[in-house]
């Protein structure tokens, strides 16, 4: 019964179950939105891309914990995962009311700790996460 609450602009052109996925849902959100995520989201890698249940021989075990332990083939898979995410966000990145901070850290939940927002060594894409969110929120260039 939840499909009736999804944007009609999405459900009219595709199966409503697809409209739960961010790359389709975000196109229809009217409220200003800021997306903060790691392109190599460690939780996604550990739980969706290479979950232990799908890796009974433990081939991905060390790579899941630290990308420095990945083989060349595993790094290709991780790079493909990153590229799919960036491609999915391409339309959103052109939005005038939306903002993004997508880094290439092997991390998850970068918004809940002060050190990832304000520390001198926090992730930067010319600006820290805090500066990027603040500039977007207060409409600073």
From TrEMBL:
Catalytic class of the enzyme: hydrolase
Source taxon at top rank: Eukaryota
Keyword Secreted included in the entry's annotation: yes
Major localization class: secreted
Keywords tagged on the record: Cell wall, Cell wall biogenesis/degradation, Hydrolase, Secreted
GO BP: cell wall organization
One Pfam family this sequence matches: PAE
Record GO terms (molecular function): pectin acetylesterase activity
Keyword Secreted: yes
One cellular component (GO) term of this entry: plant-type cell wall
Enzyme Commission number(s) from the entry: 3.1.1.-
Cell location: Secreted, Cell wall
InterPro entries, alphabetized: PAE/NOTUM
Family stated for the protein in its record: Belongs to the pectinacetylesterase family.
Role description: Hydrolyzes acetyl esters in homogalacturonan regions of pectin. In type I primary cell wall, galacturonic acid residues of pectin can be acetylated at the O-2 and O-3 positions. Decreasing the degree of acetylation of pectin gels in vitro alters their physical properties.
PANTHER family (UniProt xref): NOTUM-RELATED, PECTIN ACETYLESTERASE 12
Name the record gives this protein: Pectin acetylesterase
Organism this protein belongs to: Taxus chinensis
């Amino acid at each position: 019964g939840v499909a009736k609450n999804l944007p009609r602009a999405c459900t009219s052109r595709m199966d409503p179950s697809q409209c739960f996925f961010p790359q389709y849902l975000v196109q229809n959100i009217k409220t200003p939105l800021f997306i903060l995520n790691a392109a190599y989201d460690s939780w996604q890698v550990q739980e969706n891309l290479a979950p232990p249940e799908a890796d009974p021989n433990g081939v991905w075990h060390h790579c899941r914990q630290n990308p420095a332990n990945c083989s060349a083939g595993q790094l290709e898979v991780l790079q493909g995962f990153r590229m799919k995410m960036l491609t999915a966000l391409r339309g959103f990145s052109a939005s005038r009311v939306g903002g993004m901070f997508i880094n290439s850290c092997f991390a998850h939940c970068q918004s809940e700790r002060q050190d990832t927002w304000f520390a001198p060594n926090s992730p930067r894409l010319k600006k820290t996460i805090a500066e990027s969110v603040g500039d977007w929120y207060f409409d600073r260039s």
